[in-house]
Sequence to fold (383 residues):
Amino acid sequence: MATINYDTRYPGVSDLKAKARRRIPKFAYDYIDTAIDCEIAKQRNRESFHQTKLTPRYLADVTTVDISAEVFGRRYAMAIGVSPVGLGDMMWPGAEMALAVAAQKANIPYVLSTFSTTLMEDIAEAAPDVCWFQLYVPKTLEATKELISRAKAAGFKVLVVTLDIPVGAKRNRELKNGLKLPFSFTPNILWQSMIHPRWAIEQLRRGFPDFVNMQRYRKDPDQGLANLVSEFTMPGVTLERIGEIRRLWDGPLVLKGIQYEQNAIDAMNAGVDGIVVSNHGGRQLDAAPSSVESLRALPDETRKKMTIMIDSGVRTGLDVVRGKSLGAEFAFSGRSFFYGVGAMGAKGANQVIEIFRDEITRTLQQLGCVSFDEMDATWICGQ
Ligand SMILES: Cc1cc2nc3c(=O)[nH]c(=O)nc-3n(C[C@H](O)[C@H](O)[C@H](O)COP(=O)(O)O)c2cc1C
Fold:
């Protein structure tokens, strides 16, 4: 049943976003909120979800609805998971661990970024049943092998390889704020931290966030963020490297960031188990189609042979249901969850999960659909 198990001062992700904007320093908020260039691709993601209409059906008892969803042999509580977000603790100290613990408790997937600020082994211990690992593919095969064997040894369930960052993005809000790693106090960053003392004191207490999984690959301890990313990762992941990764990882393998139809076919032919249709939250190419537009364009054969998932612009339970109607078995969001922890600290993790739980349940009830598994294209208006 739909129940409100969350703080009603922030009943939706948009309320958490507004609160996060006030509660944390501007450079931290901009880090999560910004997208590329004019931020049109980010906007397009939302518009495409809004434009997907579903027709309600009545004359059915919807006292109880089943919102659970299965992916890669596990039935999760619902079809929403936490997308990988690098430098997650920038939003709030301990954000990544809080989200991983909440995801384990709620039985939803938590995808840890290669560029996380918490050790991958610690996250796997905290979320043993629901942890997935996202890989930015290193330039060297040696580092690729090492990260995959660490993920395997730690017990990550699914490997998610991100394709859509061939090179680092130029994001203007980030450039203007001057955020760098290792963290350095420019006058702007110092001022912003001083006017948000709770955030600053807690960060000082824990030590400022850094890419802890990457320490061993750093040429020198002061190597900056952009520099480390471009030095470390492959500028355009090749199909050949995906083949090698397939041989190294025997569990479910997912490619994240697919938009082009032929790339979906390539993934299928490479023996990949699933794809996340995504434009990286509009953070890489402002001309990119929305994730919904790309999902609609997927070739039918790829839908039959792989698990199709979506992220980029998912903000409500209704969006998760819309994604399913368009053929995405599962949805993920980065910003929704990190706005939550920015707004409320560790408590925000559960707040976002409960909002999605309530909204998915109510959406199915409003539609007259008793089980998430039954949601399909026949519910789309104008299909
Ligand atoms: C601040 C930030 C950092 C991100 N870092 C990563 C990352 O390290 N690896 C990755 O695959 N995707 C990363 N992403 C993309 C997300 O995984 C996801 O695709 C995106 O957030 C989905 O869009 P949404 O934020 O609109 O839900 C990042 C996104 C944001 C906002």
Notes: The mean pLDDT is 95. The beta strands are 69-71, 74-76, 80-82, 110-112, 131-136, 158-162, 253-258, 274-277, 307-310, 330-333. The first strand starts at residue 69 and ends at 71.
